[in-house]
C-alpha cells in the first residue's frame, strides 16, 4: 500500500513558493523540529523570516549565491530555507572542514554571501549545536546555473566533485519518499543521526519530515545513551535514521532498555555487515531497513522492511539498469557543474561506479560494492568488498578497510593485541591465498568522510599508519 494518499494524492510540483507550500505550511502549534528544545511551525517560520531579512539586507536576491558553513542547528535550517525562499542558490559546506579546506571551497564556488558561526564549537560527538550564525557579504558572483543546492561530494574514493540539484529535483525526491512503503507517517517521529548537511539527513530527514508532518528530533549527542533518551522522550512511533556507523554504535549496547515506541531503524550508505545487523535486531527487536542513494540523485532504492537483504527495490520514479556489471541510473541531465569526469553521465544515464546486478524477473537490485573493488590478482578476480567484510567480521576487529595498490592491502582497528596477532591465521581459514591481504596494518583509527563512510583513498589511509607509506 502506497503512502501517496496521505501526502499529496498527486506528484508534488516545485512552484516558486515551494518552500512555503511544501515545507513551512501547517498549524502554528505543531512541533516540527527538536534542536535541543521543541520548535513549532510558527517558531520555524519566524526564524526563517528573520534570516531572510538579514540575507536580503546583504544584497542577496533571486539568482544570487550563498554558502552555508553551519553545523546541524536551527540556524542552519532557518538560513537554508530563507535562502531558498529568496530564490538563491545554496552551497552547503561541512562545518568540520578546516579553514584551509573552507577557503579552497569558497574560492571554487565564489558565493556572494557566506553564513558561518561565531566562536568555537564544543567537542564530542554531537548531532546538533546551538550557535550564533553570522552572515557576511563577499565579492562573489551570482549563481551560474538554476540549481537550488550545490554540494561537494564526500571524496571517499578521491577528489570531491561539485554536485548540483534543482528545486524540482529536491521536490521529486520528497515525493519519492511519500510514495515508499515503510517511511515514517504523519504524527510519527524521526530521531535523526545522519547530518542534515548531507543528502540522507537533508532530504530524507529535514525536508521530508517538514513536508510530511513528521517530528524531527536530533539527539543531544551521538552516544548510545543520548540516542536512546531521544527515542524514549516521546510516545509516538519512532524511526532511527542514520548510517552503518550508528547501527554499529547502537549494536554495541548489550542491554538496551525496552523502547515500545521504537519502530524501525533505516541506514543509508554502505550495507550494514550481516553480523552487526543480526546483533542489532536481536537486541532491539525492530526492523533494520536499508537505503541506497547518492548525493547526485538522493534515494535510489530501499529495503525498509529488511525483506530482501542485501537486495533493494528501486524507489518510485527511479529507473536502474545494469551495464557490464555497473549500476546506472536514468537521469535527464548531468548532476555535475564545473570540471567533471565526462564518463560519469552519458546519454541520460548516471554511472554510479558501483558494481551491482538487477534481477530481470523481480526488478530487485543488489549493490556489490564499488566498481573499483573488483581487482585481478594473478589473473584471478577478487572482490575487495568480500575481503573487507571477512576481515571486519573477525573477533576483535572494530572496523576495516581493504584497498588495492599493486596488491591487496588491509587497514584494521583491533584494540586487543592478541586478537590482532591472530588475524592472519583467521584469514587463512576463511580466504583463499590469492584473496588474502599482502600487507595488514593495525591502526588506532580509520579515517571517515563527513557522512560517516570509511575512506578508501590510499593517500588518506597512509595518515592512519605512517609506516604504510612506500
UniProtKB/TrEMBL annotation:
<feature type="domain" description="AMP-dependent synthetase/ligase">
    <location>
        <begin position="55"/>
        <end position="319"/>
    </location>
</feature>
<dbReference type="InterPro" id="IPR000873">
    <property type="entry name" value="AMP-dep_synth/lig_dom"/>
</dbReference>
<dbReference type="InterPro" id="IPR042099">
    <property type="entry name" value="ANL_N_sf"/>
</dbReference>
<dbReference type="Pfam" id="PF13193">
    <property type="entry name" value="AMP-binding_C"/>
</dbReference>
<feature type="domain" description="AMP-binding enzyme C-terminal">
    <location>
        <begin position="386"/>
        <end position="453"/>
    </location>
</feature>
<dbReference type="InterPro" id="IPR050237">
    <property type="entry name" value="ATP-dep_AMP-bd_enzyme"/>
</dbReference>
<dbReference type="InterPro" id="IPR025110">
    <property type="entry name" value="AMP-bd_C"/>
</dbReference>
<dbReference type="InterPro" id="IPR045851">
    <property type="entry name" value="AMP-bd_C_sf"/>
</dbReference>
<protein>
    <submittedName>
        <fullName>Acyl-CoA synthetase</fullName>
    </submittedName>
</protein>
<dbReference type="GO" id="GO:0016878">
    <property type="term" value="F:acid-thiol ligase activity"/>
</dbReference>
<dbReference type="Pfam" id="PF00501">
    <property type="entry name" value="AMP-binding"/>
</dbReference>
Amino acid at each position: 500500500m502506497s503512502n501517496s494518499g496521505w501526502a499529496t494524492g498527486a506528484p508534488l510540483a516545485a512552484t516558486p513558493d515551494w518552500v512555503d507550500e511544501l515545507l513551512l505550511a501547517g498549524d502554528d502549534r505543531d512541533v516540527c523540529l527538536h534542536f535541543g528544545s521543541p520548535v513549532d511551525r510558527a517558531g520555524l517560520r519566524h526564524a526563517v523570516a528573520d534570516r531572510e531579512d538579514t540575507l536580503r539586507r546583504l544584497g542577496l536576491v533571486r539568482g544570487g549565491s550563498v554558502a552555508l558553513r553551519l553545523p546541524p542547528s536551527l540556524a542552519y535550517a532557518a538560513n537554508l530555507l530563507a535562502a531558498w525562499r529568496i530564490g538563491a542558490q545554496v552551497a552547503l559546506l561541512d562545518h568540520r572542514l578546516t579553514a584551509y579546506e573552507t577557503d579552497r571551497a569558497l574560492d571554487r564556488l565564489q558565493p556572494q554571501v557566506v553564513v558561518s558561526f561565531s566562536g568555537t564549537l564544543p567537542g564530542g560527538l554531537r548531532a546538533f549545536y546551538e550557535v550564533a550564525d553570522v552572515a557576511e557579504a563577499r565579492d562573489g558572483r551570482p549563481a551560474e546555473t538554476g540549481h537550488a543546492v550545490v554540494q561537494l561530494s564526500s571524496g571517499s574514493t578521491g577528489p570531491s566533485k561539485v554536485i548540483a540539484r534543482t528545486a524540482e529535483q529536491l521536490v521529486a525526491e520528497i515525493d519519492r519518499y511519500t510514495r515508499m512503503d515503510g517511511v515514517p507517517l504523519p504524527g510519527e517521529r524521526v530521531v535523526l543521526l545522519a547530518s542534515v548537511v548531507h543528502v540522507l539527513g537533508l532530504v530524507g530527514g529535514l525536508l521530508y519530515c517538514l513536508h510530511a508532518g513528521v517530528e524531527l528530533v536530533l539527539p543531544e549527542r551521538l552516544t548510545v545513551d543520548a540516542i536512546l533518551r531521544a527515542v524514549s522522550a516521546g510516545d509516538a512511533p519512532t524511526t532511527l535514521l542514520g548510517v552503518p556507523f550508528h547501527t554499529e554504535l547502537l549494536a554495541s549496547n548489550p542491554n538496551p532498555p525496552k523502547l515500545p515506541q521504537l519502530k524501525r531503524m533505516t541506514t543509508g550508505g554502505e550495507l550494514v555487515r550481516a553480523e552487526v545487523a543480526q546483533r542489532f535486531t536481536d537486541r532491539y527487536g525492530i526492523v533494520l531497513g536499508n537505503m541506497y542513494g547518492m548525493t547526485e540523485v538522493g534515494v535510489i532504492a530501499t529495503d525498509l522492511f529488511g525483506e530482501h537483504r542485501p537486495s533493494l527495490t528501486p524507489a518510485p520514479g527511479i529507473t536502474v539498469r545494469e551495464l557490464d556489471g555497473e549500476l546506472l541510473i536514468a537521469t535527464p541531465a548531468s548532476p555535475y557543474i564545473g570540471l567533471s569526469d565526462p564518463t560519469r553521465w552519458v546519454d541520460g544515464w548516471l554511472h554510479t561506479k558501483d558494481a551491482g546486478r538487477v534481477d530481470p524477473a523481480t526488478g530487485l537490485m543488489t549493490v556489490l560494492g564499488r566498481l573499483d573493488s573488483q581487482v585481478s590478482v594473478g589473473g584471478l578476480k577478487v572482490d575487495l568488498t568480500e575481503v573487507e567484510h571477512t576481515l571486519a567480521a573477525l573477533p576483535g576487529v572494530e572496523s576495516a578497510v581493504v584497498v588495492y595498490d599493486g596488491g591487496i592491502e588491509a587497514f584494521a582497528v583491533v584494540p586487543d593485541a592478541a586478537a590482532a596477532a591472530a588475524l592472519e591465521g583467521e584469514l587463512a581459514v576463511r580466504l583463499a591465498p590469492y584473496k588474502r591481504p599482502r600487507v595488514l596494518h593495525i591502526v588506532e583509527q580509520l579515517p571517515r568522510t563527513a557522512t560517516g563512510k570509511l575512506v578508501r583513498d590510499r593517500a588518506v589511509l597512509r595518515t592512519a599508519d605512517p609506516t604504510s607509506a612506500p
